[in-house]
Every structure is written in C-alpha cells, then in structure tokens.
C-alpha cells in the first residue's frame, strides 16, 4: 500500500503537468521536474500515513476510512512543498497550475484506487492466500467468542496455525497441569510450523491463573501476546499518560479537543453571522407580523441549560399567547390552542428558531448539537434517563442529529426522549466538522418536509 501511494504521488504530478500544459495552456510540459516533485510529495505523504497509523489492519476493516487516511498527509505534503518553494524562491520548477492539478488528480485517483486495492488485499487475506504473521491461539475452553476471535485475526492478516483450548477450572495444580499439556503441544507444533507468536486469551481478573500460564510459557522460545477481555480492551483504547507511579489510562475524555472546539466555533460564527445578515429582512418582517397578530413581546426568552449545565436565555420568536418559563412548562401539541396564527406558520417553517443565531454568535449555543430543553423538562427526564445529563458535554445546537433523524417535537412517552438522547450521544461521540455540515444540509430539507413540526 505504501508503494501504491508513492506511485500515485508520482503519477499525479506527471498527469497534472501534462493536463495543465497541454490541455489548458498549450505550453511545454516538464515531466521530469513534475516527477521530482511527485517523488518529494510521496516521501512526505507515505511517512505521514504511517504516523497516523493509516496502514494498520484496524484501519483496513473500514474501506472508506482507509481511503480517507490518504487525504490529510497528501494535503500536508502540498503545504510543505509550497512552503519550501516560497522560502527558496524556486517556484519555476513547476507552475502553480501543475501543482494544483496534481493535488486534485491525486485526490481523485487515491480514493477509488486505495479502496480497490484494499478490497483485493482483504479478499486475499480472507482466503488465507496472504498472511503477514503466523501464530498459535491459546484460549480457555469456556471462552464464548473463539470463532469470532479467529475470524477477526484472519481479517487482520494473521494465520492461526493451531488452536489450543485449555481447561482453566479447578485448583492451582489442575490449572498448572492443563497448561503444561498445552505448552508441550505448543513445542510440538513449533517444531514443524514456522510460527512467530502465541496469542493468549484469558480473563485479566484472575491474577493467579495468569501467573501460572506465564510461568509455563516462559519455556517456549517465541513471543507471547496477552489479549484483553472486552472490559479491559475498552480501557486500554484510551489515551495513556506516564507518571512516576505508573501508566494511567483515560477512561473519559472531553468530547471535543481544543482544536475541535476551535474549528466548530469558526464554523458557528461564520455561518451564523452570515445567516443573520442575509435573513435580517425576513426576521424584521416576522417581528412586525407577530406584533400585529397578538399582544406580547416579539422575542420569547426562556432559561435553558448549555455546555456543562450552565444556564442561558434562549431566544425565539414568540409563537404562543403564553411565555412559560417556570417549574412547569407544557410542551406544544398538535392543535395547541395557545399557538397564534402567525405562530403556527413560523413554527411549521422553524422560522421561530432564527433568533437563536444570536445565541450562536454569543457562544451560548452552536449551530449543531443536542437541542436544549426547558429546565423543567431537564429536571424531569434526568431522573428517568441515566445518560440524559451527558447531552450537556457539548454546546446545545440550533439543530441536531436527533432532529434530522425525525426525533423532534413533542415527546409524550419517555421512550421518545430516550431515542432522542441516544441520537444526541451518538453525535457527541462521532463529531466531525463534516458531520456538522451534513446535519446543516439535511436540516434545510427537513424544514421543508417535516410533518412533526407544529
């Protein structure tokens, strides 16, 4: 795969040079210079993919993720090339048109080519025609996931040459006797098979059993890898810090890193400010209609909880004859008599939510996130749904993953709110700037067709 990526880099620059000079400018191409730049880009891109573990078997499980691992190192390579060219004033070696064309061609070539190459690689692995490692599997007889373990290891390019189940029950002498029998079988297999390691699957909670097995396996001259059970595996996947006491593993993190929050904030401010400017005539017209239709303020303010549970006042165009903001807040229902004539229209089209763009600019909300609820509803559902408060780990949003999946409006049953919370937590765990853009785009279509808005 590394050789393929390097070849793609060379090909992209050569094709970019030919495309730009012979198709667009009708000038003289310089394929030698383009190939040199392609080699430099490849020497930057391939190590970049290595550093981000883009060639690991775990990434290969997901074809789309594997293909996209090329994108950031590829973009970084062009940044480095451009910076070097600027510092050394050697931009004559290849025109900006060639470099731009090469970047686009490389991107377009890499995604389908890497995806196809990975599919072929996975096919070869699945039929055991290609294996990067050979190993012996030792697992307790009571382990319920043996077939799943073997399948997963094969998908990672590991050829299991032998499976050695052992009985881990009984007292210390029984376990030791069983393990010694398995170790003798290991020696016999290693005498005829070229295996590189033993993969050991036992519960980590039984320290005595681990000590006995490790002592017995110390007589076998191959590497031994101890795989964690599901609970320990979840812990070890967290970030690790080294201290004088020992290693500590992160079991909970902030949903978004500092860089993630900065990117999200840039999108929020840019998009919300632009929307406020473009929609100001519409908002002014709606304000006039509300004032003419019924008595009361144009803007309805209600206390809500934001990031980390901090309270703020959410802004909405008033759509009802009441402005509830206390211990009891009744959700809007279909045919609700409290909704005004103008209110029915602006609620149906979600225009009543537009003042929240100002909440976004002020930093109290984000364009995308879990929708904030009235304080009375927060207090009620937090007692019934254990994970409800986790929604406050990010800023609330003007729209959200739950809303674009049809989970908006009234929640007459607790199960309705549980479904919404599940979607909100999925969003928090899987956030990306592309996901935010996707939700914003889907929101536009939902507003035009959603029948749950009333």
Automatic annotation (TrEMBL):
This is Bacterial sugar transferase domain-containing protein. PANTHER family: COLANIC BIOSYNTHESIS UDP-GLUCOSE LIPID CARRIER TRANSFERASE, UDP-GLUCOSE:UNDECAPRENYL-PHOSPHATE GLUCOSE-1-PHOSPHATE TRANSFERASE. The chain crosses the membrane at residues 35-55, 67-87, 99-121, 266-290. One of its GO terms (biological process) is polysaccharide biosynthetic process. The keyword Membrane applies. It is a multi-pass membrane protein. Pfam families: Bac_transf, CoA_binding_3. Keywords: Exopolysaccharide synthesis, Membrane, Transferase, Transmembrane, Transmembrane helix. One of its GO terms (molecular function) is undecaprenyl-phosphate glucose phosphotransferase activity. Residues 264-448 form the Bacterial sugar transferase domain. The keyword Transmembrane helix applies. InterPro entries: Bact_transf, EPS_sugar_tfrase, Undecaprenyl-P_gluc_Ptfrase. One of its GO terms (cellular component) is membrane. It comes from the Bacteria. Its main location: membrane.
């Amino acid at each position: 795969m590394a050789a393929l990526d390097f070849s793609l880099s060379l090909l992209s620059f050569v094709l970019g040079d030919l495309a730009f000079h012979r198709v667009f400018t009708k000038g003289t191409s310089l394929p030698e210079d383009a190939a040199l730049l392609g080699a430099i880009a490849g020497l930057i891109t391939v190590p970049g993919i290595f550093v981000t573990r883009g060639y690991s078997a775990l990434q290969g499980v997901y074809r789309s993720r594997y293909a996209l691992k090329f994108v950031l190192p590829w973009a970084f390579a062009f940044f480095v090339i451009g910076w070097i060219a600027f510092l050394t004033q050697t931009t004559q070696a290849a025109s900006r048109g060639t470099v731009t064309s090469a970047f686009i061609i490389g991107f377009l070539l890499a995604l389908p080519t890497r995806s196809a190459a990975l599919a072929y690689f996975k096919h070869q692995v699945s039929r055991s025609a290609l294996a990067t490692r050979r190993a012996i599997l030792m697992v307790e007889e009571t382990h319920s996931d043996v077939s799943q373990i073997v399948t997963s290891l094969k998908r990672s390019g590991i050829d299991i040459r032998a499976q050695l189940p052992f009985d881990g029950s009984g007292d210390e002498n029984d376990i030791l006797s069983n393990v010694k029998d398995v170790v003798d079988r290991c020696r016999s297999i290693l005498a005829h098979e070229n295996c590189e390691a033993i993969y050991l699957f036992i519960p980590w909670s039984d320290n005595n059993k681990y000590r006995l097995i490790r002592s017995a396996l110390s007589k076998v001259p191959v590497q031994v890898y101890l795989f964690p059970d599901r609970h320990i595996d979840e812990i070890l996947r967290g970030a690790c810090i080294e201290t004088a006491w020992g290693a500590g593993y992160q079991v909970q993190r902030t949903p978004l890193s500092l860089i993630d929050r900065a990117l999200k904030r840039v999108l929020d401010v840019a998009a919300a400010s632009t929307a406020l400017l473009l929609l100001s005539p519409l908002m002014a017209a709606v304000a006039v209609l509300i004032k003419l239709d019924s008595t009361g303020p144009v803007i309805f303010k209600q206390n809500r909880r934001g990031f980390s549970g901090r309270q703020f006042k959410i802004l909405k165009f008033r759509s009802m004859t009441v402005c509830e903001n206390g211990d009891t807040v009744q959700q809007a229902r279909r045919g609700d008599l409290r909704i005004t004539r103008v209110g029915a229209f602006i609620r149906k089209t979600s225009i009543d939510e537009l003042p929240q763009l100002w909440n976004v600019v002020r930093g109290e909300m984000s364009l995308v996130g879990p929708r904030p609820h009235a304080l009375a509803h927060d207090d009620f559902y937090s007692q019934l749904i254990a994970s409800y408060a986790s929604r406050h780990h990010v800023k609330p949003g003007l729209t959200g993953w739950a809303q674009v999946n049809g989970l908006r409006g009234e929640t007459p049953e607790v199960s309705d709110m549980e479904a919404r919370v599940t979607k909100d937590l999925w969003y928090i765990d899987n956030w990306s700037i592309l996901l935010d853009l996707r939700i914003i785009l889907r929101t536009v279509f939902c507003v035009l067709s959603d029948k749950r808005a009333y």
